[in-house]
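Quarterly update from the structural biology core.
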Amino acid sequence: QVQLVESGGGLVQAGGSLRLSCAASRRTFETRTMAWFRQAPGKEREFVATISRGTYYRDSVKGRFTISRDNAENTVYLQMNSLTPEDTAVYYCAAASTYYSGPAYPPSGLFDYWGQGTQVTVSS
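Predicted structure, tokenized:
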């Protein structure tokens, strides 16, 4: 079992930045692929970014968001810049034992473990 704990969410004005963190309880084969998803009110959960054998992003966040990982700290980050109100959502961290090599968005079913989520609110 792997526990994932997100942090770093909050309220920010449009154009601002936030950095989300996801701390995994341990690094094992079960965290080969790490990802961020988000769910806005009244909408389905959607893929945002993933890091595995490469990094992949949702088209709408390319150039604004950067996913990275610190293996020594078992932590994955999501640096979010130029935020817009459309980025408002609960952001979830996820881990999978399967490597992901693109090119399509990875399905949520690929991931075995999920965090509780952290709220990101962008005001206009």
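The longest strand covers residues 89-96.
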